[in-house]
Amino acid sequence: MGLLVEGKWHDQWYDTSKSGGRFERSESQFRNWITANGEPGETGVGGFEAESGRYHLYVSYACPWAHRTLIFRKLKGLESHISYSAVSPEMLENGWEFGEGELADPLFDANFMHQIYTRADANYSGRVTVPVLWDKKRNTIVSNESADIIRMLNSAFDGITGNHLDFYPESLRSDIDAINSMVYDKVNNGVYKSGFATTQDAYEEAFDELFVALDSLEQRLSSQRYLVGEQITEADWRLFTTLVRFDAVYVGHFKCNHKRIVDYPNLWGYLRELYQVAGVVETVRMDHIKTHYYVSHDMINPTGVVPKGPTLDFMAPHKRDQ
Ligand SMILES: N[C@@H](CCC(=O)N[C@@H](CS)C(=O)NCC(=O)O)C(=O)O
């Protein structure tokens, strides 16, 4: 694990010394926006129009942020329009790396993800994260922010695909934004704040906030089917990718062990329902998920031994429609 400083790779773990042992996530730096006709999008930069075959998505199957983008590519019918490839699950001294066969880099045959970043910006300083949405025409990174990428995929290509499913409908936007910001801080990022904390206080603070949030989501899902009512929105997919990793990884590896998702009847049924949505199961690679976390974070798990369990029956009937 490491980062680029003015285009040079440095192998170093997150620095929590100035934040009282707290893990602080850095902001994504590539924030361009694809729109139907290339007009500037939400972040104000134009010139990236939706075109079939122009863009490539680099993901890790292990990563919950990248996983969101794979789900949107699938549900929005973009498979023949946006190519994708996955990196190896182990993230070691060179950061994310490409592998053999389906884990190779199909565009440049690069060895490491940091080489994709320096192709876009030879002097880039910052973390080398996935997902990355690459523009084959302008030879640069459109975006390395999953929250932005799923918004683009939600609408920019509708004229090409004819798929008008809308996971961010106008009338629900303020509710979606509100739940997203709580879920991001306490749950999506909350599990990382718990797992990467280097002091007892920082860990307990993140842990307590995480389970207060999960309790409130459990409550919410007792009276409504999805996070903002009766239709699946972006907010549900953003929560899903954390929930699906929770019992297999976050409970043990990130010490989020007050309760498992299977102990919450509503969250567990909801998780199974989302998992069973057509197309989603192919985006979930539990082998990559477990290997990535347990092997890559050697300051948390120095032996790199990957636990065999737990057994999770995501296909059991969810009965959320009753
Ligand atoms: N805000 C980014 C976060 C992406 C992110 O942190 N990805 C992790 C993998 S789960 C990563 O690549 N970490 C490498 C690092 O921090 O050096 C997004 O949502 O796209």
TrEMBL record:
The keyword Protease does not apply. Keywords: Transferase. It comes from the Bacteria. Glutathione binds at residues 96, 127-130, 145-146. InterPro entries: Glutathione-S-Trfase_C-like (IPR010987), Glutathione-S-Trfase_C_sf (IPR036282), Glutathione_S-Trfase (IPR040079), Glutathione_S-Trfase_N (IPR004045), GST_Omega-like_C (IPR047047), GST_Omega/GSH (IPR016639), Thioredoxin-like_sf (IPR036249). It holds the Pfam family GST_N_2. The record marks 250, 293 as: Lowers pKa of active site Cys. One of its GO terms (molecular function) is glutathione transferase activity. The lineage of its organism: Bacteria, Pseudomonadati, Pseudomonadota, Gammaproteobacteria, Alteromonadales. This is Glutathione S-transferase family protein. Residues 169-293 form the GST C-terminal domain. It comes from Aliidiomarina halalkaliphila. PROSITE patterns: GST_CTER. One of its GO terms (cellular component) is cytoplasm. The active site is at residues 63, 192.
